[in-house]
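User: Can you fold this complex?
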Amino acid sequence: MKATSIGRISTFCALLTLSVPSALGHPGHFYSAFHAEDLATAYAHASDEGKLVFAYIKKPGGNDCPYLRWVTPKTQPVLDLLVLETIIVELESDTPGARSFDLTDGHLPAILLLTPAGEVVHRLPGDTPPDACRKILLRELTGPGTIERIQSAFVAMGEDHIFTRERLARAYARNGETDRAISAYKWCVDHTLAQNNASALARRPYLFHALAEFAKISSPGENRSITSAKFVDQQLARIEHVLQYYDDSKLAKDYAELNHVLSQDERTLALFDRMPADFRSRNALFDRIIDQLINAKRYDDVLALITPLEAFRGEVALARRRIAFRAAGDSQATGRGTKFFAMHRGALLAEALIGSQRNAEAEMLLAEMLKFDSSDETIDTLTTRLARVEGGLAALESVEEMSQ
Amino acid sequence: MKSNSTCKTGRLFSNSFTQHEELRITMTRIFWLVIVATTANISAEAQDFTVIALPDTQNYSSDYPDLYHAQTQWCVDNLAVYNIQFVTHLGDVVNDAATLYQWDNARAAMNRLDNGNVPYGIAPGNHDFLYPGDYYDPAGTNYLDYFGPSYYMNESWYMGASPSGLSNYQIINYSGVDWLFLHLCLETPAEELAWAQTVINAHPQSPVLVSTHRYMSNWYLWQGRYQDWQYAFESLYRHDGIRAGEFFNGFVAPNRQIYMVACGHSDGEVRQVSQNNAGLPVHELLQDFQTTYGNGGNGWLRIFEYRPDANEIFVRTHSPSLNDWRTGDQSQFTLHVDFEQYVLTSPSLRFQNGSGEYSSTVDTWINEDSGGSSYGSSSILVVDDDTANSWFEEYEGQAMIRWENIIGPIVYEGDPTPNYIPSNATLHSASITLNLADDTDLGNPEFYVYRMTANWDEGSTWNSMSGGIDVGSETDPTRLATFLGDNNPDGNAWRTFDVTPAVQAWLGGSPNYGICILPQRIDFNDDGIEIHSSENGNVATRPALDVAFDYAVLNTPPTITTPLWPSTLTAYEGEDVELSVDVSEPNPTDPIILYINEFPVGYGTGSGVVNHFVLMEDEGEYTFIAEVADDEASVPAGEITVTALNANPVITEINEDLTVAIDEPFEFHVIAGDPGIYDTITIRWDLDLDGEYDDFTGSAGTWSYGEAGVRLARAQVTDNDGGETLGQFSVNVQYIFTFGDFDRDEDVDLDDYAGLYTCRSGPDVMPQPTPPTTAMTCLQAFDFDSDSDVDLADVSEFQLQINLP
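Assistant: Here's the predicted assembly.
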């Protein structure tokens, strides 16, 4: 029996979803379309929402759009842009929708950027690297026509459509219209802090990331008293005020990420120190302050937030998955989910444990670390960290001996 | 159990089954062989009952505990009204798994079910785990603390949990049917599915409802099972999770017994019907009210009213707190479920000469009236307390029957279905059916059945049996059965009686000498019976032994038909490589897990190709070691090394060739990218034609040339791994003529006047200058009115330009 009972073969499903009145989406994409099953649907929604159509046309039986197959540091920004400004549709070249295009040169797969009227704005090879695709998309999505296109969405989506407002803010920022961008971003931040709009809450991580990028531009508006950086700084202050009084873990996490993109994790730590000690939301800042806390030898603060062994095991679980799914040299892949990250995190936690005289736990942790990876790099990392605490190197030596 | 040095029994089966299931689950596979037609007739016997589904209660646990309590209290209050037999929770019990008060709220609400004796199960969802930020906790520590297996160990309906404790199952026996409820952990990892498969295999006659958290979505423009593209926008929450498509194809579809998959997670109501591999419909239902229905879900719950008689489940949606019903076609509908189709028909095993391939029945009777005679070839067996019909003495006829070769060796996966009782079987029942050729016509004596303890054969006689069979001497002293001789009702010549103790004894090692049938001793005259023997011409009337038992089929490890092979041994960074293993598993319902580098990456059921994709993020050599495991054993499945080559950067766009004037600035640009996930590119330009890419660095700039001629502007795009791609465009730098500027010194003055003299011609006459000046040069300089000559009109225009009178 070959590939019959083991299923990788897509199974035809008779859909009985006759009518689904609500127009929902993934929490990040409420009330906005971004992926259609056919061109006609894509055109209709692109027209309503003032978007373009991103058509990926493949040979029959060909792979899906590579940007959708693997999320990577390079595809993620493309996906974010596609969700915001296009309706994605994936077609096989022999389908009626795809046949309407001149594909006689045979270069498939191909990417077509289309207007809602079906005009080809740009055509790219299907294997265009995502970073190159993003540059082209950004160019096509910048300019005065973009603003009008996005504004046209208010007719169908309503003036208070948070998703469209965010798009507008981003477009103003891309176009260098700082004052308008500030106004639009302000509207979005107000709504996301109002806590009563599911769409606004769901979009908040994306919005904050856009704010960080906006701040980096630091361009002055016509009103010279405010720059984009200053505006974002004001918003951060507003959020900090909220977080000192409301125990909101999600907002705290989004706030920490915003600071991180702005390379100001120290601001997150400052807020951490101002937040009430019993706020659960302090834990949400953990990822962005652990290095600072350890470097400051604030071990008790670290250990109050997490369970070290569990934390390390979780990171190892993620790293083990990565090894099976993604092939990359350790020197390249260093983010969460990599062996590098797991061992770095483990080393921090080991230092905290020994620094807090929790040596038994530290030795368990060290043993698990060395079991997972006893490379020279790991030993070097541990040696560096553990040299900072009394008894650290001895503990490492002891565990190394036992491991051998 | 077969030993295997690489056995993973511990990993897959060191679970926390309750006392009810421990024994059975140590066996790999349980098959039921039932002779008599005892298949559960679900429709004919089952009564209506109700199952309640509680979708995502996370917001209740965090902010609206009263709504949660209202839901569970409603279940208790309506236990009799709806005949509620079970409650299934679809996951996301809490909003924030680290916040204990939310678990406390949830526990308190669910305690109402405990106190009301309402059986339930929970399929933990993504919110029930901790995720990176605090720390990643795939073990579900707090979920296990509050709702783990230990909490339910003493509940009769709680049948067990997976080794992780994150998946569990319950069985409700109602109207003679064991209804199985399988609660599977979020994005059920392969090893959890392998456990689930053993549960289903152990209960082949139970219809199965699967509850899991994330399985279908209600996204804008897509309602249905999660598609692969959706994971680009909402990735797996679990590091070892599998996608909905693989869940269906690898687990749901191969299992005939699963009639419904219920899920939550995505706000809304969606339903669809798919088809399993047996061609039966599988109802897939999403119900989740957490976001857009107000107050964190407003207490909406699902009511599944099972109506086995009608082959349907009537689904309704109700909110106890609102005391309201949702009645739209996505909220209230009927599912067609012919439950009988979903359970396996029990195979039958009957030992009867001529029935199937069986031919090992030995039978005879012995006659006191003719002590030296044997009747082994007789077509009837006579049992009579007086075969001579004597007024003075009793001359007994006694019958003996033995079914030989009914017990055989243990069965392994891949062996044919046995036509015997495996020696490791657990016997449930055994009965003998006889057909009387002649019943009693005088009196109604009893006939007694005993297990024989003395040997005999078809040549045995009254005398060779030392004067007939004496109870306790040639038999076990305990009577197995008694039946009457007279046909009642008239014409019913069949006699069936239980002989389970006898078969159990043989299975336990006692010699199989068969059974005997002895007559009741009645004074004075009466009648005996004649039983059709195994020599009778009509197979159907020959003595038959029917046995019901289950037995473990011991594991046979999967065989690797084709070890690990890649779609390519050499790929470029940015590409993915498909790794495949072809597996042959003798048991078609065995789970199969593919491990790559010790991590579970693929799941399937039975034999076939299991595959896995790996993204080549960066150049290098990568070794992949495969292992394949079924539910008990794992086997090496090959090792390969794939080389990922550095891919050169790709120039997607560069200027088209252009024409500019001398010193005219022009913009140049290139758009390029690199397929390597971590590669960054640098763009350098050679604009001055010196062969060095040192004139500009960046994707776009401005340049100009001071001399006429065709130039090549060249871009060099490099990555940080030594990859290089070149691009170029040509720039045609031209001198742009100015009328009157004959000497091309960029002004029109008296110096040009000499040229005018040389070039002048008459109307409609081409200039004929002295070489090297050409006619074209003359026209470019002085043909102001573009009439292809240099006449007086042009001279006038020239004079105007230099202000000559």
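The first strand of chain B starts at residue 30 and ends at 33. Residues 72 and 110 of chain B are 6 Å apart (CA to CA).
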